[in-house]
Amino acid sequence: MQSTLFHIPTHLTVGGASLPLFGWGLLLLVWAVLGAAGLAWAALRHGIKPAVLSLGLPLAVAAAMILWVLPSLDDGAGVPIRGYGVMLLLAAAAGTWLSIVRGRTAGFDADTILALGTEVFIWGLVGARLFYVLEYREQFFRRGMSLGESLAAIVNIAAGGLVVFGSLPTAALAAWRFAARRGLSLAKLADCAAPALVVGLAIGRIGCFLNGCCYGGPCDLPWAVQFPAGTSPAEHHPGTGGWSVPLHPAQLYAAIDAALLALLAIVFTPLARRDGEVFALVLTLHPISRILLEMIRVDEPPALGTPLSISQLISIGLLAMAAGLWWWLSYQPRRPTRAAAGAAGPTEA
Q1: I need a surface site. Which of 1, 16, 157, 324 has the fewest CB within 10 A?
Q2: Backbone phi and psi for residue 79, each to the nearest 5 degrees, phi listed first
Q3: In 3D, which of 97, 115, 108 has the Cα closest to residue 39?
Q4: In this structure, are residues 202 and 253 in contact, taking their beta carbons and an 8 Å threshold?
Q5: Distances (CA, A) of 200 to 167, 180, 203, 346
Q6: b/e for 153-185, b at 16 or more Cβ within 10 A?
Q7: What's this model's pTM, rounded to 2 decimal places?
Q8: Between 219 and 338, whose confidence is greater?
Q9: What does the pLDDT read at residue 299?
Q10: Mean of all residue pLDDT scores within the chain
């Protein structure tokens, strides 16, 4: 694992003068210029109001992070760049790229997918973090911690601490509002994004491995891993020399599982008979694999008086939702086949 990759200095020396990089510094200036250019470009293509609705919130959130969040992360050596945070950004980039590629075949331009991806990513991040904070609230509201320290710990997402299932309500609401606002088919958007979501999950789980969270139980298999002193696995499953005992790399199991599910969703896309079936497939299979993977993980205790973890209980609920979605889809019109579309001939403009 590699929790911290490197540090970014908080000040840059230019011509003998020390200039702040974060807060009211150079990064905010660069972001303001780039944001204004992006907003102007979107306004020229779609109009001022759609541009502001699509980009206003993401630009404001990023500016707030530069102003207040990044300076609060300074640990004395600079702002640490965590492996978890880097993989989170890579996950967002890869998922967005795949959605753009798939969106072209579904009739969505890149601007639409970028706007959707930004909103879903931000609100999904908020939901995933809130769920984690609620589940592990003792880490953020310990006795003796000031309110400022608690808030700084809560916003320090790059250090790790997201619950994937927590992102579902906020991300789904953001996607629904986006589709309703633009008059787009939510089912088509969901099919477009479904493989991208699990690609992002696969990359994000590698971040979990670098961070040392979401670990598995003791293991004597050749691919067992040990985590160094100071990590949660070493604390809860101590071995020799401060290291943990050999453990299942549950994070990598989950990454492989998500990658295979993404591949399956892509292969299934041309076989789907109705809009929404690709998303329904992912919504069905991911909870099943999550229930099985939770049997290997040991970082979550049983919840609500049951022998199941909170993730397993949510997975059961998602399976019920998937069953309801398949039932609803069975009453929706089928997509026209290629043969039928060709027989219909070209339509007049």
Answers
A1: 16
A2: -85, 115
A3: 115
A4: no
A5: 13, 25, 5, 38
A6: bbbbbbebbbbbbbbbebbbebbeebbeeeebe
A7: 0.80
A8: 219
A9: 84
A10: 88
